[in-house]
Every structure is written in structure tokens, then in C-alpha cells.
Write a structure and sequence with these properties.
The complex is a heterodimer.
Chain A (H helix, E strand, L loop, with lengths): L1 H17 L1 H37 L3 E5 L5 H13 L3 E7 L1 H11 L4 H9 L8 E6 L5 H14 L7 E4 L1 H46 L2 H10 L3 H42 L3 H7 L1 H28 L2
Antiparallel strand pairs in A: 1-3, 1-4, 2-3
Chain B lengths: L1 E9 L6 E10 L4 E6 L5 H8 L7 E6 L2 E2 L8 H5 L2 E5 L10 H11 L4 H14 L15 H13 L5 E5 L7 H16 L3 E6 L2 H7 L2 E6 L2 E6 L7
Parallel strand pairs in B: 3-8, 3-9, 6-7, 7-8
Antiparallel strand pairs in B: 1-2, 1-4, 4-5, 9-10
Helix pairs in contact in B: 3-4, 3-5, 4-5, 5-6
Classes of the chains: A alpha+beta, B alpha/beta.
Chain lengths: 306, 227
Amino acid sequence: MITGFRRVIKAGFVGFWRNAYVSLASIFVLTIALFVIGATMFLNQLLETSLATIQSKVDINVYFVPDAPDEEIQRILAAVEALPDVASVTFTSREDALLRYQEKNQDDKISLQALDELDENPLGANIAVQTNETSQYEGVALFLENQREQEQPQVQVIDEVNYAQNKDSIDTLTNIINATERASLIIMGILLLASVLITFNTIRLAIYTSREEIAIMRLVGASNMFIRGPFMLQGIMYGFISGVLTMLLFYPLLVWLGPRTEAFFEMNLFDYYIVNFGEIFGVLIGVGIVLGLVSSTFAVARYLRT
Amino acid sequence: MIYFDNVSKVYSDGRSAALQEVTFQVAPKEFVSIVGHSGAGKTTLLKMIIAEDKPSQGQVFFESLDIHRIPKTKLPSYRRKIGTIFQDFKLLPHKTAYENVAFAMEANGRTDAEIAENVPHALSLVDLDDKAWNFPSELSGGEKQRVAIARAIVNQPDIIIADEPTGNLDPIATYEVVQILRKINDLGTTVIMTTHNKGVIDEIERRVITMDGGRIVRDDTTGKYVL
């Protein structure tokens, strides 16, 4: 058993070397396939990050009236925070709102003068609400509107909820995000399928050149596993070497591309590659080995049927 | 040792028959030559013995074993009892002469020690000690066939099946191959060989079965080539 295993391993390595051209062609194609898969992973990451960045810039603001009682504000704040869809709530007090206004308008002397004329701070506190998904804003806005309607006229607390003004842009953004995610999923699926099929066919062709040998081995009385073993090992070797090659290919590409993606997508792909090196390496080699192994096992099986 | 019982082989078109009601027997240590025109059914006959082809009718026995009832998983171990030699040598192109012979032993699960001992022995029996590390593409036709013979005998099979072993060889190589086969037979191995070559038959002077149109038409104990 152990002797048989050792012989299969040896035959696999020797076969790999003596069929160098066939091995080279298989590795070449498998590397391209893995490159496509890796590029898909990077693109997906880029897309996800940039969508998340855009999403994080969208929020709903609730403006309170200037003389709103603190406990009412706290009550609404707690109620909003308790909503399951809400990701974060940022509270800005009246004083902070004033400071921010002054900062924002520091070049606008007239506005500042007008502010000084007033005895007291005309600005109310406000909260900014962010949800997990852009599609959830509608529900949160509805909740806030209900809150406002329930209030008695004499103790009105919420001055304005700005969802209505933002609704169109939020809806558009939601559509764009959904469409982008769907399109990228389809494109990735097609690319993955194509690279798998091309790899499978290449390895099938590589083994087709060995069909005579397989027939001879059977005539000599070799068991199926003894014939199949070296081909399976070669499939694994193709996958492993291709995985390493693909990682090497990505390095200079991402050194060049990293700063450019940072400028546009606010994400440096090269940093992502370095931080997640182990994971990406594992996925690429894993996919390569599985592809190589499965392809060669299927391809040989064809010639082992009686 | 080999027993054909009323064996027929009809191809799927239902009309052409490769074998028709063939019955004969081969005793241990015999040297049987099968002669006949192309298409007479010689090769089909040999394929039946190594379970490469199935009869449409009748049975083929190896000792008491019905060859075509051997389960698929047991076929490799059955085939290891038989040494096969072909007109086109059927050597593994990416293996050296030594490795080709050793492969048959590896497939048989022999130990490294046995391989190291028996392979050089088999190669020297066919007089190829000095070509052991050459690849098939570096050998002449006669040398390739001798490698194939070494591979066939290295597991000490009960029987050697040779399908036109001299078909691609020049007269001198033919003579050498026939001498080797006779030597193997003298050492106690049954040999069944098909051939076209009248000279080979006359040289061997053993049993000759003559086939025509899928039937056995002659069976002479000390053969002549009559067609």
C-alpha cells in the first residue's frame, strides 16, 4: 500500500517533468483562470468597499425645535436607536450646531453678524441617522414622521425630518447599488464558469495525449488507481504552481494599481492584498488544486471505462 | 489451460462475424501458432483471452475460470497472469526500457528488491542490458519488441500472448524474437502467437492452428504453414 503510494507519487513527478510542454501549457491556462478568479475577488472587494463608502455618506437628519425639552429629545433618540435597521445615530447638541454653523460660515460676515444680533442661539439640536441598507431609510423616516404627528401642537419637538428632500437621491442610489451588485454577480459567474471550463478542457486535452499510455497500462494489468494516481498528482501540482504564479503576477500589478484605486475608490488594493495575503493565497491555491484534481480525475476516468 | 467452448463473435451490425463456433484447447507449456489471412479472427481470439473483447456466444476458460465472468475490479489482477506482446510494441513512450519493464512489476505490487533483481534479469534474457536506460524512441523495432517481451515475462506469467510479434520487424530481428519466444517456452511458459510469417512457422515446428473466415480450418500438431 505504502509502496504503491510512493510509486504513484514518483510517477507523478517524473511524468510532470517528462511531459514538460504539456505541463507548461496546463499551468499557463490554469494560471490565467486563477488570475481571472483573483481579479474577480479584488473587483468585488473594491465594489463592496466603495458602495459602503457611498452608503455611509447617506443619512437622515432630524431637526428639533430650539426649545425642545431635553428629555423629549433623549426619548426620541433612544427610540430611534432601538430600531433594528438603524446602524448609527449621531447627536448634535444646540451648542455644537451653533459652533458648526459658525465654522461653516466663517467667511460669510453678514450671516455671522445676523447671528450676533440675536440674543439666543436660534439653532435646534439635531440627530443624524444611518441605516444598514439604503432601502431601510424609508421605514425610519416613516417612524419619525409618526413620532412628529403624535406630538401635541403645544409641545412640538421635531421641527423637520429631511428625508423627503433626500428621498429621490436615496432611491436612485439604492437602485444603482442593487443594479451594480446584480450585474457584477452575473459577470463574475460567467467569468468563473468560463475559466473553469477552459481549464477542464485543457487538462482533458493534456490527458488525451496520454490515452495510448493509459490503454497500455491497463493491458499490463495496472489497477485503475495505479493509473489514475499520477495524473491526479499532476493535476494537484498544476493547481499549486498556478496558484503561486498568480500571486506573483498580482504583486507588481497591484503595486502599480494600488495608489490609483486609492485615489478613485478610497481603497488601496495593494494594502488589501498584503493584509489578506494568506487568505487570498489560500483561496487561489485551493481553487487551483481542486480544479486541477477534478479535471484530471474526470479526464482519466474516460479512458478507464471498459 | 485455455479452453474455447463454441465461441462466436458477431459485431453489432448483426452480419459480420469475427469468430464462428470456435472450439479448441491449449495445454500447459504448449507453443501454439495461429495463422490466417487478415480478418480471419486471430486478433479477436487473443483479445478474448485477455478480456479485451467479449464473445457473443460461448465461453472462454482460463483453467477453471470463465474469463468473461471476472468482475471488472478483478480484471487487472487477472491480466497480470498473462504476458502480452503486440505488433506495435505498446511501450510507454515516456519511460525508459528499464522503467517499462519495471512498471509491469510495480503494477503487480512487487517489492523494490524484487524489481531490482528481476528487471535486469529479464532485460539480459532479451539481450538488452546495455539499452536499459534508453527511451523507446531511441530503440530500433527489434529492440522495442525485445523490451516488450522482457516486460511480458518479468512477472513470470503462466502464459504469453503474442499478437503478430514479428509483424513490424526485419528478418534478423524476427529471428531473434522467435528464438527468445522459444527459449521462454522451453523454460515452461505457454505461448500463443498469431503470425503471417511462413518462415516463423517453419522455424518453430510446433502446433499450428489455421483460421479462415472466423473458423478453425486446420489444427496440425507439428505445423506447416498451409494457406
